[in-house]
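User: Last request for today: this protein with adenosine monophosphate, please.
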Amino acid sequence: MKSVAFTSDAKAHDECGVFGIYNSDGLNVVEICHDALYGLQHRGHISAGITVNNAESFYTQKGLGMVSEVFPPKSVEKLPNGMIAVGHVRYTSIQNLDQAANQPLVLRYKEGSIAIAVNGSITNFPQIRKVLERGGAIFQSNSNAELMAYVIATERCSTDNLEDAVINCMDKLKGAYSAVICAPTRLIALRDRHGFRPLCVGKLRNSWVFASESCVFDSIGAEFVRDVEPGEMIVVDREGFHSYKARVDREKTSMCLFEYVYVARPDSVIDGVSVHTARIRMGEMLYSEYPLDADMVCGVPDSGIIAAEGYARASGIPYGMGFMKNKYIGRKVGTGMDKKKRLMQTKLTALKSNVEGKRIIVIDDSIIRGETSKHIVHLLRSAGAKEVHMLISSPPFVSPCYFGIDISDRESLIANKLTTEQIREEIGADTLGYLSVEGLRKTVEGAQFGLCDGCFTNSFSADIPSVFFVDKYANKINKK
Ligand code: AMP
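Assistant: Here's the final one, the structure of the complex with adenosine monophosphate:
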């Protein structure tokens, strides 16, 4: 097979959050967008930004850091108010830190300006980019947003309107993308045909809003209307709300299961399923798969806590706090950093007075390299726990994610190197149990669309990027 110019590392693997608002009420869209980004902060700590469209002139403020760092007090006031605003928070592994990829990305082309904010990972990125570069395109970054903007601008040369250009772009781009686009007179929201990443629509008085997660609507006082459907493009303009369907293969919709396990905020509802309810069920399901006896159940803050509550409810074993989390240690930077820093960033100490002398069941959401679990078991044992039984509210991670979750290095996944019994020994726990794939799927029963469990099964319903096919694991990846 022929090799391609870009390696799998060339493109950022981003987990992000997006927001967009079209003002029909004389609202302050900049303030609302700013508040919304706080509600999405858990989806990205690396960079934040807002673009506002004021009488078709675009103003952007963005930079590296948390929302509070990029927008220090009173700084949002420097942006003028406008008709449309889009916002973005980005989370990428530290090796892929590429400042030019901070979003929203504003591009000027023959029809005016567009600002784009994207969450996801375009899997035919290298091929599309190569074709564009052969035609003379110059890129500033390796971001999905820039590629998407470029394809839209190119398509616009052969279409009568922006809507057709975006639909054509959706036909060309493969993989995962939920995006908002600010155009001179329109706000556009789109979700890839598989629906890998969430995107929903809400109403704030008469104004339409879009966000990666519904929790944002609660924080800005908007009402949840519905999820953007896989393969749907929604356009909001002076005439109102217009929905367009790209060509969708409904059977292959594959919303990311890991959003429910780890990524999304518990107060979000994604495709009809509450993230909090799903996590409670994960704990209950863990109890039905591992009915252990112990003195206390605790969760690893933050994402293991709710599953621990579910396990405690189902088992009748008291729930207790096992850890203190230091809120004042800086942001979490991801799995790409060195081991010592990563463990420091767990920000945890064991609560000795609550765990000493007890048989503890501790629940975390996932094991990737195994370092966190080893650290957690060590913390509990050092604090005097008599037994430590570790349960995980997801199955073993056996594959990188090609569709937007920052887990890209197959070699580092401990479940690919060791059996569950060997991992138990390695992390020093008395018991180690993972939730089964079937069990996890049951916890999100009722979701409107199909689900992607590829990171747990090595089987994907969408095409894997061809750059990965040239790697030595190509023949191990299954296609559903
Ligand atoms: P590890 O120490 O490599 O096994 O990482 C496991 C821990 O990383 C768990 O406690 C998870 O909460 C957390 N985690 C899971 N997915 C991600 C991700 N994509 N980025 C950063 N941390 C993650």
